[in-house]
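Help wanted!
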Amino acid sequence: MNQKGIRHHQIGDTFDDFMLIKSATKGVASNGKPFLTLILRDQTGEIEAKLWEATKEDEQTFVAEELARIFGEVNQFRGKPQLKIQSIRPAQTTDGVKPSDFVEKAPVSEEDLMERITEAIFEMKNPNLQRITRQFVKVYQEALLTYPAAVKNHHEYVSGLAHHIVSMLNLAKQFKALYPELDQDLLYAGIILHDLGKLKELSGVTAPSYTLEGKLIGHIPMMVEEIGTVAKELGIEGEEVTMLQHMVLSHHGKAEWGSPKPPLLREAEMLHLIDLIDAKMNMLNRALDKVQPGEFTERMFAMDNRSFYKPLFTDHYTD
Amino acid sequence: MNQKGIRHHQIGDTFDDFMLIKSATKGVASNGKPFLTLILRDQTGEIEAKLWEATKEDEQTFVAEELARIFGEVNQFRGKPQLKIQSIRPAQTTDGVKPSDFVEKAPVSEEDLMERITEAIFEMKNPNLQRITRQFVKVYQEALLTYPAAVKNHHEYVSGLAHHIVSMLNLAKQFKALYPELDQDLLYAGIILHDLGKLKELSGVTAPSYTLEGKLIGHIPMMVEEIGTVAKELGIEGEEVTMLQHMVLSHHGKAEWGSPKPPLLREAEMLHLIDLIDAKMNMLNRALDKVQPGEFTERMFAMDNRSFYKPLFTDHYTD
Amino acid sequence: MNQKGIRHHQIGDTFDDFMLIKSATKGVASNGKPFLTLILRDQTGEIEAKLWEATKEDEQTFVAEELARIFGEVNQFRGKPQLKIQSIRPAQTTDGVKPSDFVEKAPVSEEDLMERITEAIFEMKNPNLQRITRQFVKVYQEALLTYPAAVKNHHEYVSGLAHHIVSMLNLAKQFKALYPELDQDLLYAGIILHDLGKLKELSGVTAPSYTLEGKLIGHIPMMVEEIGTVAKELGIEGEEVTMLQHMVLSHHGKAEWGSPKPPLLREAEMLHLIDLIDAKMNMLNRALDKVQPGEFTERMFAMDNRSFYKPLFTDHYTD
Amino acid sequence: MNQKGIRHHQIGDTFDDFMLIKSATKGVASNGKPFLTLILRDQTGEIEAKLWEATKEDEQTFVAEELARIFGEVNQFRGKPQLKIQSIRPAQTTDGVKPSDFVEKAPVSEEDLMERITEAIFEMKNPNLQRITRQFVKVYQEALLTYPAAVKNHHEYVSGLAHHIVSMLNLAKQFKALYPELDQDLLYAGIILHDLGKLKELSGVTAPSYTLEGKLIGHIPMMVEEIGTVAKELGIEGEEVTMLQHMVLSHHGKAEWGSPKPPLLREAEMLHLIDLIDAKMNMLNRALDKVQPGEFTERMFAMDNRSFYKPLFTDHYTD
Amino acid sequence: MNQKGIRHHQIGDTFDDFMLIKSATKGVASNGKPFLTLILRDQTGEIEAKLWEATKEDEQTFVAEELARIFGEVNQFRGKPQLKIQSIRPAQTTDGVKPSDFVEKAPVSEEDLMERITEAIFEMKNPNLQRITRQFVKVYQEALLTYPAAVKNHHEYVSGLAHHIVSMLNLAKQFKALYPELDQDLLYAGIILHDLGKLKELSGVTAPSYTLEGKLIGHIPMMVEEIGTVAKELGIEGEEVTMLQHMVLSHHGKAEWGSPKPPLLREAEMLHLIDLIDAKMNMLNRALDKVQPGEFTERMFAMDNRSFYKPLFTDHYTD
Amino acid sequence: MNQKGIRHHQIGDTFDDFMLIKSATKGVASNGKPFLTLILRDQTGEIEAKLWEATKEDEQTFVAEELARIFGEVNQFRGKPQLKIQSIRPAQTTDGVKPSDFVEKAPVSEEDLMERITEAIFEMKNPNLQRITRQFVKVYQEALLTYPAAVKNHHEYVSGLAHHIVSMLNLAKQFKALYPELDQDLLYAGIILHDLGKLKELSGVTAPSYTLEGKLIGHIPMMVEEIGTVAKELGIEGEEVTMLQHMVLSHHGKAEWGSPKPPLLREAEMLHLIDLIDAKMNMLNRALDKVQPGEFTERMFAMDNRSFYKPLFTDHYTD
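Answered by r_m:
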């Protein structure tokens, strides 16, 4: 397995390791011969690669979700690194590599994530909210523990959704301590369920794309519908169901961001803010990690295209 | 019953007739005595009235949805007509008046509206779309035939929703003739179902307000959920269900107008436009009806606050 | 003449046929030698082509609006097809090809379009509106029957403007049937004249660009002025002239879309909507024609950059 | 005639003088008796007045544009001064008062304004621009010298339009000195003609309202049309006509402010800015005149609702 | 002193107690006699009152910031309560009432607030940030402990600013625990200083208005300047000063909300969010306190004009 | 030195002259060899150049701010000119060329600019405004006379800032003559100081970039702070200081353009407009200089992306 990771290679470096093919697109070069543009990834990042003069067999062998051993050199094309492939072969069983080793994962284990979610459900006192939430976690447990929280921007890695949920639960616990007026049960249920619609909106874990239902309906209305269905199945009626649907429906905060109703409950407003805080901290921490003190990060699209500064002095006094 | 209608009274006229109480609010006058502010209506319009020195009994007798016989005079207060009540008594069984005589109604009978909707369903060839649509019409028939299409702005009268649906079906039939690429079944199903969520969003027919679910969830996600539920009950699966949910979800056209997804089907785009055209024509025709050739209408909030002109010449040549 | 059309060629195909040169731009290659970038078109579409090592004579021969016989191969450059020219020669009289065979045309003949427009004018009862409209059609007949309705987006083909007008007249006829309050004469006159300013705003039929007057004044104010002039020439005075000018002036619907006044007549509002519907259906139908059921169209700039879905099921039940 | 002016009266003051009736509206008081709400004005400002228990004769006598002698007291109603009429009589010939004494006028005489405009035309070297401009001034001279520049906000007084034109000509002269690249003729012609469409958009001088053509077409397209007509009458062709039409068309600067084309000539951009500067200085000077140093003006709608501050120190050093 | 508070009075109640005059405005009644409109307040809220037939002496006695004993009756005027004064007298020394008893205060004592702020400063490790922060707290201690955080919307009560700061410090402590990458010193310093400019922007504690400098410069640039000045006085240079100025400058989040630079530091982004959360929770809690379960709050201007719902079920399970 | 200037070279021309290196970036070619992308400039403009197969020594020799003699050929790459370097050597002392010969400069000498600024300060009567202004000019004189007014768009050349100030002073003098109500001292002081913060916001004269303080604080708040500091140093207090800070703070006109307060003084409004006019005229004149009569300029980003037209007729009549 890759000891070093593609992210740490410099222009001019030789490369010789396994990588996961994220996508493969065929093209025809100016000499009339076909070539493949491969997006390759390992746990540290992605790189574009060109396989020139690709044969029909190459096209069928090197496809998305497959692993390959690649020998080549890191060049630069229009200011971005590009891997020039000199030789490539498909991975074999005897190589002892598997796709899940080549994708980024949450820094917390699935077991710990599950434990914290279970604990939060256990703390809930309102039986209606608790039963609905528990049912969803039970039915979707496997996907819930492996899906990313999004296709890009924040928590876009394996177990990203559960990682996001657990961070939000921790924030909510502190908010409840500081603002005791908050209904903890509603907030916990809202946090656990708010993005579960993504399990149907996205196609999978390793290289997620949008499903047809995801494109035409979207995860928010899909989840509102499913909360209604689950409540009926469990024979639960009453305001809690509507409130929970409202929590999910309004968590994007504004109509133009995909919530047909803005938050109209104290807890819905806080759910929206907690979601925002955790997504932003996840993006900021990961972007600032990549730069040195005294530098600015690259522009971050989901942070209004801002470039953040990492001060020089922070190292000196804080641990 | 009122021969003439409140809309036709002039400032200074004596008034002596039955009216429906739309709302009743208590106040205390500058002399310290309680009074009632009544909003009264008949088929031609509304007027505010003051019942000075109201007794406890008055407060309990003259409440919303009740009928009363009123004698008084039409005055003016801040530029708007106001009815000064000189005597008032509750209507009695022997008066032979009923609330439904005092509200505005669609210019087409419930029977004719039902017939046209049934006919459209009958024309549908796709069994999935047809069965779902028929099921909704069956379950909601009574409300569907009496509810207004909205609380204000357009088709805001008894049977307004069905009137709006039928006008839209007629438009759709013509569109299909001119643009044969349109899928008529999808368009018909979308038209009949697009606003049915309002039957749960609004509280009733005579003086509709928003229900709790209407305020927190809204008719669009409510209807998307219910299409899912009905499809499951009927054992229908497949793209038609998602397409129909998308038609309803997207019919407001834009996220900021309440549709989390914009129209992404040819028929969804047309549904949005047909809805717009019929709502606008309904508003325009009713506003222009109230003015003389050569005059401008009052400003219309739902038409971007525009004031429309009624030309002088149209009478001469067109019928 | 081209049997198959450029749109139907695949990457790697050999090409050998006549094409119309839409534009020709000179460049200098990295080896210091001049080359020509040609945009070529036939009735089915366009393709970019490179003529390497172009001579002075090539530059003078292969210019916009000329026809040429080309032999070459369809390659791909940055994800888009590109024609690599191996040999090229100008078309000669004996080749029997003419430019008009290489441009897209409306699916209805000029005769049929003219007939329908004439019929509409004949139906008009208001003599003032009728005379002004007839005068414009008489003066501009030739251009009116050949111009496109726009440089891009919708009806951007030969006779596109007349095709658009006729579709709109058909819609208007149906609208009048459903909403008899509409003044048909005003609507018909508005439809026929609304975009005639484009005959002066655009430079021609085959490869239209904007004229100086088009850039600095625009087709809407130009047409408002010309209606005034024509009315004076015909000795017509009165409200009809102002109403007709208003119809044209307001047909883009909003100031930010180029109409200094929004529609303030019932018919002006409908003209704006009818224009919108027909432009959208024209764009949607042509984009959906290019994809298979189950696919999404390419993003459409003039439809808010949306990508539309073509359902799988529509084939089964509707014809 | 009024020695002091209504603007200088305090709450509680007795009032006894002639005033011009700007508008008169009938109402019915809570005692059932009719009254008149009069808006009265003199050269210093306006006040609302109530004539209680108005007779039929009063209604016919005290109408807009008439003069009346009024005796009463200045009260306050909802924070604004109101004149309580104790007696009122129509002005008679022998009173020696005339309407033009009761309206605000430009601080420069009509003769001086005309002289400066004539001088500017005389300075023009381009015969085409000069002839068109001279023709407009000749035809509209009387209205041009008396109309206000707007119904409200800036230069909204008698001769306001000519006053605005002359200030702008003075600014343009200085701009030409500082930026010699400017074409003075085009700028002068644009300044003189830019708002002449208002002579048809507005109904008159004393109490201007919008004409039907003003409401449905607007002064900008009306003037573009008329420049075309005048040029044709004078037999002038060529770029100057289009440029001049563009100057007028674009002088509001943006589509959402009523210019379908933004300025695309250096002189058009400057015309827009000169118009802006002079309108703003006119509003600012008049608003700051009404307050003392150390105070803020009232909020000014046409200045983005800002309230401007008048510094204390300016008196000390500048003259 | 007031046992019950004006907020708890019903329409029709007799009122007999001391109140603080917040503002007093003179008017003239329709009978020509002067009256005073007083805004009165106690710790529970405000009410408008009318003192009819006010004498010159009344005008001089009953002015803003004074206390008065009032006997009267609670009436209603245009849907809002109004106090009809039957007798009034100024408070005297012997009455034993003082203005500070009649204004709303933070629910935490000044001592506790000061202790928590001191503790936070003590926890800071970066000497530059600590010294600057300590200096500000030392210089402004008195005002800091008494000023409101704003004129309206949130924490608009005595000690509101310190209350807001302390809540934010508590939130920041929890954020640091969950996101250890945050620089606690920078966050603490930013929180304590972010709104101190309001001590100069606002005129005082009891009835704050904006100072001239507040209106023309605003608290953000004023504070940026003062941080620079204090740093120079303390002889502190380096990145910390700029970072702290940036924290203050950017804490409104966007240019259109008054921050010429958006947050470009991780801690600046969090400061903005923490400020938002605490302001929103303060507004929400206070608005929801005033309504019963099952009701909606009044519309809240600073929460995008939303009306929040208080669920029925929360009472049952959570404490 | 370059006789002709890079701007006047055509595609295909041979080039042999000195140029200033504005920036140098390393890349790796598809053959794996390093190359340098150089941006080169002289007084007439810029060009991109490629130095293929660059050695380590080349990388160290050809860096920003150095001069080099280059022999090569002007080619075209993606529609833009590109210089293909055939030989290159660093300039030597004996070549007699210096960087300042290769940058664009204001068309007025530093001495004349300084004289006009000094004259304006001399004309000021208010001693407080005069002393503050004089102090700034004294301290920053050197930078003030050499810095550009901006990194791009307008006056982006050596002495651009002073050139802009002097043009604005000339405009202000004329404005004062036409609108005597303006306080000339405040306007002059505001003009001279409004952009001085750029001396700290930008890194230097020849190839300016933004400083850290410039990025995080910006020139407007930096200058507001410094005016406060200078006033304190000079012992000046009073409204003038606040007014001057307001002039600088508000000169961008709107919050979204970087002014946390909009202009609230007559002179602040005029400062904003004068700044706008001079920036626009500078951009327009330079863009129109590059095109022939009858042509449009390239699109100008800072002019709302407009392309301006240069009329044909202006040459004939005006000098």
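OP: Thanks! One thing I noticed: Chain D has a mean pLDDT of 90.
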